[in-house]
Design goal:
Layout lengths: L1 E5 L7 E4 L9 E10 L2 H8 L2 H5 L6 E2 L3 E9 L11 E4 L2 E2 L5 H4 L10 E2 L12 E5 L3 E3 L6 H5 L1 H14 L6 E5 L3 H12 L4 E6 L2 H10 L4 E4 L5 H9 L3 E6 L4 H10 E9 L11 H7 L2 E4 L7 H11 L9 E6 L3 H9 L5 E5 L1
Parallel strand pairs: 11-12, 11-14, 12-13, 14-15, 15-16, 17-18
Antiparallel strand pairs: 1-2, 1-4, 3-5, 3-9, 3-18, 5-6, 6-10, 7-8
């Protein structure tokens, strides 16, 4: 069957043939109906340090944001049946370490990431998935919407951890799909003003089209820190860094108010130096976000999409067949897309 991923290290993405997977004990085979490219997948496109650390070998099928239908179940599968509509939690925890046993399996000491640390991901027709991380999806949610629940859940987790209070001012650095989700969620959580910053002209226009941010700042044309202070006088109560840009990380600490909160969502491509004195002197609370809470974030995300409180499809700008994945990755690498859906 046709698959997309890596046949070797180095820049680029490959389209190749791979055998259909077979389910092991506790696993299911899912026919993929819709799958999306994530910013994490771009690390493999560039073949940077993150990609090299998470390489189980070649050939490697990428993709972890997806939905589909269960077509086969392995021995010992009890919760799912053939025909069930599912999406997938990316984190595959060990179930026995300290963090798994104390309610934080998404940061398991021995975690494996589906589509990242595994041979089979979702950029193919059929994939294999542990039953314990498969999430049953209600009929009211389309396959395309369900494929976006994984990144939407990251935004949900981030906003929940930020503890936004009615009237808070918020800055979101980065207008990729997760940044756009955060902007929408911040607004419905009670933020009085949401300021978005971005360097890509395409994503600036997309943020304005989605319309959740009160102000969209072109960070190439004006100083976003100065603009935030012009709009708020004392800085914002909450900053969400959703780009992974080393420059944006530093800007976030500069624009947050005293006793404010900085939520780091983006994964940087290289180590980032920050001024620790800024955090101390301003009494800033800095928190990192690693995926979603298992599985409470999923249930809340499903309810949000099912009730139409959020339209997750607003961030989708391209729908392409699987074989056009190299073109899709090139487009994303130029910052000329929101969310790209691949249809096997």
């Amino acid at each position: 069957m046709e698959a997309v991923g890596k046949l070797k290290g180095g820049l680029g993405i490959d389209v190749f043939e791979i055998d259909e997977p077979r389910p092991g004990p506790g696993e299911v085979i899912v026919e993929v109906r819709a799958t999306a490219i994530c910013g994490t997948d771009l690390h493999f496109y560039y073949w940077d340090d993150y990609a090299r650390r998470h390489n189980p070998g070649f050939p490697k099928v990428l993709g972890h944001e997806f939905s589909g239908v269960v077509v086969e179940v392995g021995e010992g599968v009890k919760r799912l049946d053939i025909g069930d509509r599912v999406a997938a939690e990316t984190h595959i925890p060990c179930g026995s370490c300290y963090y798994c046993r104390t309610g934080r399996p998404h940061i398991c000491e021995n975690v494996k990431l589906y589509g990242i640390d595994t041979t089979y991901g979702s950029f193919t027709k059929y994939t294999v998935l542990p039953e314990r991380v498969a999430i049953r999806i209600p009929e009211e949610i389309s396959f395309e919407e369900a494929a976006l629940l994984e990144p939407f859940g990251v935004a949900m987790h981030a906003v929940s951890e930020a503890g936004i209070k009615p009237g808070d001012t918020v800055a979101v650095l980065g207008c990729g799909p997760i940044g756009l989700f955060i902007q929408q969620l911040a607004k419905i959580s009670g933020a009085s003003k949401v300021i978005a910053t971005e360097v890509s002209k395409y994503r600036l226009n997309l943020a304005r089209k989605v319309g959740a941010a009160d102000e969209v700042v072109d960070a190439l044309r004006e100083d976003p820190v100065r603009r935030v202070y012009e709009l708020t006088c004392r800085g914002v109560d909450v900053v969400f860094e959703a780009s992974g840009s080393t420059k944006a990380v530093k800007q976030g600490l500069e624009m947050v108010s005293k006793s404010g909160r900085v939520v780091q969502v983006g994964i940087a491509r290289r180590p980032t130096k920050i001024n620790i004195n800024t955090i101390v002197e301003k009494e800033v609370r800095l928190v990192g976000i690693a995926g979603r809470l298992m599985f409470s974030t999923w249930y809340r995300s499903i309810r949000m999409v099912q009730s139409r409180a959020i339209d997750v499809l607003q961030v989708v700008t391209h729908r392409l067949p699987l074989r056009q994945a190299p073109k899709a990755f090139e487009t994303l690498s130029r910052g000329e897309a929101g969310k790209i859906l691949l249809i096997p």
